[in-house]
Design brief:
Blueprint (H helix, E strand, L loop, with lengths): L2 E3 L8 H5 L5 E3 L4 E3 L15 H5 L5 E3 L7
Antiparallel strand pairs: 1-4, 2-3
The protein binds iron/sulfur cluster (SF4) (2 copies).
């Protein structure tokens, strides 16, 4: 399942720098995740890096984008 960023995002930008797939980019109100690029960090990290590092827990699994 891809991750998505909720409206709680504080736009700190940390997750964009940490994503191993360059799946995260800055949107208008929040940072955003491209579900086609997000691999849940499989092969890079034990758990999803963006969720782990987000100071406001704004990165969450997105049930609308199950793993293909
Ligand atoms: S780490 Fe969290 S608060 Fe910072 S830009 Fe990413 S989703 Fe937003
Ligand atoms: S879960 Fe991993 S691959 Fe997906 S957006 Fe977050 S840091 Fe990038």
């Amino acid at each position: 399942m891809a991750y998505k960023i909720t409206e709680d995002c504080a736009k700190c930008g940390s997750c964009e720098l940490e994503c191993p797939n360059q799946a995260i980019y800055e949107g208008e109100a929040t940072y955003l995740i491209d579900p086609d690029k997000c691999t849940e960090c499989v092969g890079f990290y034990e758990s999803s890096k963006c969720a782990e590092i987000c100071p406001v827990s704004a990165s969450v699994p997105d049930p609308d984008h199950p793993r293909k």
